[in-house]
Design brief:
276 residues; alpha/beta; two-stranded parallel ribbon; 12% strand; globular
Length: 276
């Protein structure tokens, strides 16, 4: 996800520093960005080889890398965190960044399921800490969810909106609620489809056909769960269920837990509700 955000930011005229602790990850990420940009250039410039080369060189020239976030945050306007979905690890990172970053630097998390206010709690810039939730693949997906905590200032919100617009995204603003807008609606829907299958209401195939042809969805919920990753779906539900045990729709289906325990994670593992 981080490399996709970096690519689009660089494409839209921003100077970007891509950070990871592992130099090999950075090398792999920049290579992946270069290949993606080559496809963009071919589509955008066609037979104009000179234009394509200029686009590629300019965009890649806007991206630098570092293995130390603390060392580069001094000259940063906006930090977008896209690390593992673990609150303790996020807290450690932002504690370090908060002590090193100038007061004007805005912090944002790309988390899809953790509370922004809780992530921001270890910093002294809660008025300059929001959520910027991009969707995969970032170069293709137009939506950006901007997550507003009660402490976020209007000035910071305006700057995040302006950044989203500059990135070429359609931004929506929502409060700091579990799953924000998309995942709050989507993940319980996927879970209910799994529970329907468990209850014997219909087969996997018929549930998906019904939602494709009856609701106009491009993909049925069980196939979509396979594409999202069954481990990802389970992780989100487990986190919500732990925090809000009274909400029935957040309880993970037994079938989902079983498939993940068997290593059947969906498309990424070759098997989930379907075989790939």
């Amino acid at each position: 996800m981080g490399s996709g955000i970096a690519q689009v930011a660089a494409q839209t005229g921003h100077k970007v520093t891509l950070v990871d602790l592992d130099e090999k990850v950075l090398t792999s990420s920049t290579s992946r960005i270069s290949k993606s940009l080559s496809r963009v250039a071919k589509k955008k410039f066609g037979d104009d080889a000179e234009g394509a080369k200029s686009f590629l060189d300019t965009t890649m020239g806007a991206i630098s890398t570092s293995t130390s976030a603390v060392s580069v945050v001094q000259e940063t306007d906006l930090v977008i965190e896209a690390i593992v979905e673990n609150m303790g690890i996020k807290h450690k990172l932002f504690t370090e960044l908060d002590s090193a970053a100038p007061d004007n630097v805005i912090f944002a998390s790309n988390t899809s399921s953790l509370p922004i206010e809780e992530i921001a709690s270890v910093t002294n810039r809660k008025d300059r800490f929001g959520g910027l939730h991009f969707f995969n693949p970032v170069p293709m997906m137009k939506l950006l969810e901007i997550v507003k905590t009660p402490q976020l200032s209007d000035s910071t919100l305006d700057q995040l909106k302006a950044f989203g617009k500059a990135m070429g995204k359609t931004s929506v603003v929502c409060s700091d609620t579990p799953g924000f807008i998309v995942n709050r609606l989507l993940v319980p829907n996927l879970a209910e489809a799994i529970k329907m299958k468990e209850r014997g209401v219909a087969s996997t195939e018929d549930i998906d056909i019904a939602m494709r042809l009856g609701a106009g969805h491009p993909m049925g919920p069980l196939q979509l769960a396979d594409y999202v990753g069954l481990d990802t779906c389970l992780f989100i539900l487990q986190g919500w269920n732990e925090k809000y045990p009274e909400i029935e729709m957040f309880k993970p289906p037994a079938t989902l837990e079983k498939l993940v325990s068997e290593g059947k994670l969906g498309v990424k593992s070759g098997e989930g509700f379907y075989k790939y």
